[in-house]
Amino acid sequence: MVKRERWRQDFSGWFSDMLQEADIMDTRYPVKGLYVWRPYGMKLRNLVFSILRQLHESSGHHEVLFPLLIPETLFQKEAEHIRGFGGQVYWVTHGGNQKLNIRLALRPTSETSMYPMFALWIRTHADLPIKVYQVVNVFRYETKMTKPMIRLREVTTFKEAHTAHATKDEAESQVKEAIKIYQKFYDELGVPYIVSKRPPWDTFAGAVYSIAFDTITPDGKALQIGTIHNLGQNFAKVYGLRYEGVDGKHHLVYQTCYGISERAVAAAIMAHGDDDGLCLPPQVAPVQVVIIPIPFKERETPVEKVAGEVKEELTAAGIRAHLDNRDLRPGNKFYYWERRGVPLRIEIGPKDVEREQITAVRRDTGEKLTIARKSLKTQLVQVLEQITNHLRERAKKSFQGFVNSTTDLKSAKELLKKRGGIVRIPWCGQESCGKQIAEKTEGEMLGEEIDSAPTQTAKCPICSRQATVNALLAKTY
Amino acid sequence: MVKRERWRQDFSGWFSDMLQEADIMDTRYPVKGLYVWRPYGMKLRNLVFSILRQLHESSGHHEVLFPLLIPETLFQKEAEHIRGFGGQVYWVTHGGNQKLNIRLALRPTSETSMYPMFALWIRTHADLPIKVYQVVNVFRYETKMTKPMIRLREVTTFKEAHTAHATKDEAESQVKEAIKIYQKFYDELGVPYIVSKRPPWDTFAGAVYSIAFDTITPDGKALQIGTIHNLGQNFAKVYGLRYEGVDGKHHLVYQTCYGISERAVAAAIMAHGDDDGLCLPPQVAPVQVVIIPIPFKERETPVEKVAGEVKEELTAAGIRAHLDNRDLRPGNKFYYWERRGVPLRIEIGPKDVEREQITAVRRDTGEKLTIARKSLKTQLVQVLEQITNHLRERAKKSFQGFVNSTTDLKSAKELLKKRGGIVRIPWCGQESCGKQIAEKTEGEMLGEEIDSAPTQTAKCPICSRQATVNALLAKTY
């Protein structure tokens, strides 16, 4: 029933086409790496990010909004940081015809604009913790091949959270809370992920360590979909973030930051799609149920009327229902809404009206259901839940098929080459061994897996010492 | 009861101080014209703009999101337009260390990025109308004195709507719809306004005509809080926006655009405040009711417990209630929440607990009310509505006191000088007369008032011909 050949074998082509055909984005904006969110895509984006906002609000994060423009003086202060972004920053140099005295960076992320302000906000321990977030546009002068939603010059939708704490332990707990938030978020979207601690050579500039969420594309490549950084006191030192403790002395704060971009939307699209188009999880589908009247000339009116009633009934029940009464053939409408990934289609023909029923067709399985009008609402709620669960399980299964374990380098290399995905291999944790593992398997080291440990007898495939962690290898998108 | 001396006599100082003291914005960001939205201010901003979004959605506008960066080539295409913004545009010239081939403008508004895409979206009459909006940051290299929320280099929150239509009449109707939307929006906020058609010399570059909403600051100056432009076919010609009509021929579309910025938030703050701080309309108040326990040592527990119950009860009823159980004196808490403009304060002391009542204090009037616990919810809803109405009426009255009519130039000049506000004076509608009226009264011509007409015998004070419109004059903020 479900065809996933192109989705798997030509994922890049599938993804670009679907964004355009399902009215998610217009990829024809005449600047490399910049794209336009179209109305249907924008609704999807807003629904996805409303889950993320909600998770932040309910865990005590407060929304703020900082300027886009960061003066070079402030930006340069974090020399570590500029090393991380310097080559990729867009610079504003002129206002009108005037050259600016100080160049302004378009934020690539907001540490350097936020933390000097935090320094003004923090006086005593009573001002801590600070837990804020913003959803903003950020910029990178990306020289690699750009890709809508995935590799952008303007990331239009970056949720970045920033926190400050009195103690190291609290910062550590905050990292754990952030991991939980991201887990819940991606669980809600039915997007599978694996969590790892990035290796030292791939840690965020200025961070003590970085945690990352990766998913796997349909063609077997790892895609980073969220990062969490424990910043320790590195930024606090640079920007003078000190608080007066109960001991009357001044201490540097500990900080964390964590971000998710519109890649989350890309992840939801890729996890569940098929050759016919998108297949959206009900929770974020802009249209959850589309109602298509199947009229016959002599009986048009009752069909239209009942379709209208059904739409009202579902809307009143809090279901995002849409009645498609355009002057098109039903088949065209089916195609149209399939592309757009609407989870459930309701068809109402003269027979359905007579029998006081509707016909429902699931987007995920193609299954046809006949549902009595009188139990419509409760049954639809159930079916939507079944779709949610089915999508989640299906994506998980596909993901698990891509995650393989091995203990030797040769098979790791072969697995990466033949099956792609992620390969788990024991590692002693030493940087030099880690780099050699990556090199010899021709993969990239995602990092050490969180929540997994090698067996007691497992050895590092380079130095043969006892393995302390599981390394994750992949080809990255 | 209500003191409004500083509010009126030192409005600029009052406004800046209140933004800082009520945790709306931090005005200490180290770049001129850029400010930071703090959590409480951000909540206010979101509530204000959610009304505006809702009004756009319910009238068939679809949200989109276009890139911030506009290539100079596209930007220059609208020569009229660049004349309007050229001197005030920020230019990105470098990516990393590389000089860009084509300079990129930070959008001052989005006609030049949107309309070339519209040209791709519009094929036939079936693609029309297009009605889209976005809420984005826009930039102006402002050389005048900047002011948080009011005169910015980064306008953080610009709702811009753009439409395209098959006929001139439809564009004309769209202007009327936009006026209605803005009226409803400001009515909801209780912000008084006057609507006028800007004079030809103050029309948006590229527009056939511009309509503007102005309010009046507490110190009597006109402040533009919304504009609506009928663009005719001017942009359509430049960007080739054509559709195939039912006649099989290709026609240029007609367009409109209209925008409201975070000045709307400023307008709501200034309209209702007083010397003690903000006084927010319940609909947009981040906290509608603050509950303050007034404990006595020996009876602390029941007070705290009841306060918690009241908070739960109100939250369940959909009221944004906050329980302030910080370890501070009640008087400090009163002051704190007064500054922040919370419409209603509930005090719960031992006596209140005994008598199964609460004491409520209105922020707008200072009035104290005793309300029985059992009718709390229904009574509070009523009181909040009374506050809404009272604020609206009070603001309207204050506004009306600032709008004066006269027929001669001398008294117009005097009125502007002595009482400020807006002066209405008959005008023949000729540009040369209009400019002279403005010059001789030392005011600025806002334009001709919509929905008002001079008496049949009224004469233009310059040429003495019959007046056809009422001109509005003011000192502007």
Specify the overall morphology of chain A.
globular
Q: Briefly note the structural class of the backbone of chain A.
A: alpha+beta
Low-confidence stretches of chain A: none
Give the helix proportion of chain A (percent range).
25-40%
- Read across the widest sheet of chain A, the strand sequence of neighbours is 3-7-8-14-11-10-9-22-23-21-20
Q: What is the percentage of strand-forming residues of chain A?
A: 25-35%
The most extensive interface between chains reads: A-B, 53 and 52 residues
- Give average pLDDT of chain A, whole number: 95
Query: What's the level 1 CATH class of the largest domain in chain A?
Result: Alpha Beta
Number of helices of chain A: 15
List keywords for this structure.
homodimer, 477 residues, alpha+beta, BirA Bifunctional Protein, domain 2, Rossmann fold, Translation Initiation Factor IF3, 3 domains, eleven-stranded mixed β-sheet, five-stranded mixed β-sheet, 15 helices
